[in-house]
Design goal:
With 158 residues, the protein is an alpha/beta fold. The protein is built from four helices and six strands. The chain has a single domain, classed as Rossmann fold (3-Layer(aba) Sandwich), CATH 3.40.50.1240. It has a six-stranded mixed sheet with strand order 3-2-4-1-5-6, sandwiched between helices.
């Protein structure tokens, strides 16, 4: 069985004086990411690795989760930034086979779209939302439409 933890980055500054990829997290975003990481840790949902978009807000979110889970630095995948549903599916299908539980930190609308595509569950994906999906397969390449089951879904206010 494979498990995928989708994480939407925490709340970021909307400052238009910097490029979108360089927007930092707000203070509340840092707090929310730490809160959600602890919530997952308390439930025993700790991935083996984290992969993230290269955007500052996703990297920072991923680093906060990695620190709370005592994991190595997150891997960066440029394809996650501004990714479509199909681009995210390609990233997921290419995840390392030796890892059965991976977290992917990304952006909307892609995270909401891939959640629906994989599970058939349409959900609002707020900042700092986490969604744990289980797949009855031992091969990431087999993950596709409606092959996943949403087993946990939460955000800081929900």
């Amino acid at each position: 069985m494979k498990q995928l933890l989708l994480i939407r980055h925490a709340k970021a500054e909307k400052d238009t004086s910097v490029k979108d990829i360089d927007r930092p997290l707000k203070y509340i975003g840092i707090q929310d990411a730490a809160f959600m990481a602890e919530r997952l840790k308390d439930k025993g949902y700790i991935p083996q690795m984290i992969v993230t978009s290269p955007a500052l807000r996703t990297k920072t979110t991923a680093e906060i989760f990695a620190d709370h889970f005592l994991l190595p630095d997150p891997g960066i995948n440029k394809k996650i930034y501004e990714a479509s549903q199909q681009a995210l599916l390609h990233v997921i299908n290419q995840l390392p086979g030796q890892n059965d539980f991976v977290a992917l930190v990304g952006h909307n609308p892609g995270i909401a779209q891939i959640l629906y595509y994989l599970t058939g569950e349409a959900r609002e994906v707020h900042t700092s939302t986490v969604a744990l999906i289980e797949f009855e397969t031992d091969d990431w390449a087999s993950v596709s439409r409606d092959t996943g089951k949403l087993v946990y879904y939460s955000w800081p206010k929900g």
